Amino acid sequence: MVRRPADAAAGRLAILGAASPAGAHLKAALADRGVPGERVELFGHESDVAVLSEYDGEARLVQPAGRLDPASHAAVFVCEAGHAPEGLVDAARSGTLVVDLIGSMPHAVLAGAAEGETPARLVAVPHPISMMLAALLVPLHRALGLARVSAFVLRPASDFGEGGLEELREQTVRLLRFESTPTALFGRQLAFNVIPEHLAPQPEDAAAGRIARECGALLGPPEAPITVSLAVTPVFFGHGITAHVDLVGGARDEAAAVLAGAPGVAPAGDGTGTVLDAPEGPGISVARLDEPRPGTLRIWAVASEAGASAASVAVRVGHEAGVL
Question: How far apart are the C-alpha atoms of 141 and 247, rounded to whole Å?
Answer without folding.
Answer: 8
